[in-house]
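Section 4.2 – Deliverable D4.2 (structural model, holo form)

The reporting period included a commitment to supply a predicted holo structure for the target in complex with calcium ion. Inputs used:
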Amino acid sequence: MNAPAALLLPLHRKFNPPLIHTSMKKLTLMLLAICCASLLCAGELSLSSPDRRLTVIVSDSGGHASYRILYDGITFLDPSPLGFITDAGDFTRDLRLGKATGVQVIDETYSLKNIKKSQVRHLAHTVDIPFEQNGKRAFVVTFSVGNNDVAFRYTLCRTGETLCSVVRQEATGFRLPAGSTTFLCPQSPAMGGFARTTPSYETPYTPDDTPGKNGLGEGYTFPGLFRIADRGWVLISETGVDSRYCAGRLLGHADGLYTIGFPQEKEFNGNGSSSPGITLPGQTPWRTLTVGRTLAPVVETTVAFDLVEPLYEPSKEYADEYGCGTWSWIIAGDGSMNYAEQKRYIDFCAEMGYRTVLVDAWWDTRIGYEGIEELAAYARTKGVGLYLWYNSNGYWNDAPQGPRGKMDNLIRRRREMKWLQQTGIKGIKVDFFGSDKQAALQLYEEILADANDYGLLVIFHGCTLPRGWERMYPNYAASEAVLASENMNFTQSSCDAEAFNACLHPFLRNTVGSMDFGGSTLNRYYNAGNRPGGSRRVTSEVFALATAILFQSPVQHFALAPNNLTDAPAWAIDFMKGVPTTWDDTRFLDGYPGKYILLARRHGDTWYVVGVNAQKETVRLTLDLSLFEAGETVTVYDDNSRLEGRVRTARIGKRQQMSVTIPTNGGVVIHN
Ligand code: CA
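Output (structure tokens):
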């Protein structure tokens, strides 16, 4: 099926004079209407990307709504179900395609300083496709097709006097072609794990697995990555999820089918419904598929941010406060939660030239509110700000860490936030949510909106995946939603798997949202004395430097300790002092999920090319470094076979290439 001719028209720019914009749009609509008429006879409708390589074909075959995806004419998604069941009816059968409307050519640019690139050009074709049931409009699917991204969402229609509905189940699915393999992490069963705080998106990935499974029985978390035989890759996720719906997961079935699952009933200790309530007319979140012949579109996608809008005005310029920080808990644990040790970390933070110290759990009883006020005043004299940890509870799990009972209730939360603002606290880290229910999404949103009223940045831990939140909530900083650095403190096996996980996140978790990993450890041992005992870091110092660039979050509290000023290589500390946390551009260079990755990020005029390797074999390759000028001098950090790092300068030659060697658990960093 060819793309409607209308969508092959030259694109207009968002900032073109309105008259041209309008006339182009009318022409587009008229031509599409003609095309749709003929297409509808066949019960199919197609929409192609601006570059015509990516095509979605929507069908009502057999009375079922479905869609499939082609790239360069090759199938990347087999016919996959659309539709849902609500309290008003079953909208999965007896469906007929209606007349498509609302065709738009989107060509807009937006700025966002907290994602993988600061200026994004969002280019896509969109169309509204209605489905009818028994002669009445059942629902509308809006498709957006960019050059490598397909996104769609439903609009639920008003029926008579009914202005609200409950969505019981979605048929929405993704059917992978035969021969595909999966890169997924299971959704945890509800009310398990530490103090009954799951699901918290802290489960391990299995790379190159076979489809047809369902994780631990509860499906998989977003995003999911699929290798489509020898054809390419598909990343599936969702965005625009807020208090108006629940967050979804992927339920695995036979024959490569994955469907949208709602939260487990037992989540949140059974409080709140698993079935989202929706106002009529109302829209579901976007489900997104990033499609590419290579992994570059997956690593570089901005689809999570393209399709959402800010939900409120920022109360201040939060981007001015992005940057690096430190936290004592990751190395020194609960024992470091006292005034003297936090003061020592403030001095360390100042010495590093960092912005903030994150004071983790138990500060309320071990330092106290007055102690925090003194600490914040002291920090201010050093040019350092504080983040404070909070328990989200509440009445939904057993996490005992304090402060508790401050973030779960609007009245107490706003009183607390007023104190935070008066004390000059920069942000909060709120932990232990453990639910994707609409009630939990409401809590996330209320914390963010209230925090904005008091000028606070917000980090979430023990939490769900952020779904477009960097753009939707201006004071949102980052989320954990990953097996983060704390696990390396807990177990040696997590240390042993550090490189493996680092080679997954840029293809999965970090593709769709800021990741608060809290890593780049330079201690050899995860204890305050940096002496043998407990878990031991097996990766190199250059690896630690590389992951500071590789993992993206606008606020980074690194797992550095004051002793690293004297026991880590001076070149490593010097690098970490100057590492940026915001990026103007990001490019995938090479790699394979779970094996190795090379990636480039630009901050201002400085390009950082970084790589890490989890394979037993040393990575040896010739890198195209045309990001740099021929003749330019660059600084290179790399490892020998014993993971001993070194720093040197090199000149970029005429061919703009460089041989790179990365041993197991090692890294490389090249910057101009
Ligand atoms: Ca955690």
